[in-house]
Design a protein that fits this description.
3 helices, single chain, 5 strands, Alpha-Beta Plaits
């Protein structure tokens, strides 16, 4: 399973750099290469939307390492969305995140 999330922002050019840095940091923490993919952006009404998909290997490390401990949510997919949102926020990002597929 490769979780897919939709991110949205009003300042794509600034946010994409923060997200790439944060996700590279997460790859390093998880000791995973090619742990994520960022999709092609599309813009509507001042917002830019793009997808981010985690690799199965990165997901496995995140779930088993206890990184999501304290993440709010009743189901694992909700906890993962909240974990990823807080992780990006801790790296200076201000994107909105929505789960598409888990």
């Amino acid at each position: 399973m490769r979780p897919l999330f939709q991110l949205s922002t009003r300042s794509y050019d600034e946010e994409i750099e923060l997200i790439k840095k944060a996700m590279t940091d997460l790859e390093n923490i998880c000791n995973v290469k090619n742990g994520y993919e960022i999709g092609t952006p599309s813009s509507t009404a001042g917002w830019t939307f793009f997808n981010i998909q985690l690799s199965a290997e990165m997901l496995d490390v995140i779930e088993k390492s206890g990184m999501m401990k304290g993440a709010i949510g009743y189901r694992i997919e909700e906890q993962l969305k909240n974990f990823l949102g807080h992780f990006l926020e801790s790296h200076g990002s201000n994107v909105r995140i929505k789960k598409i597929n888990y």
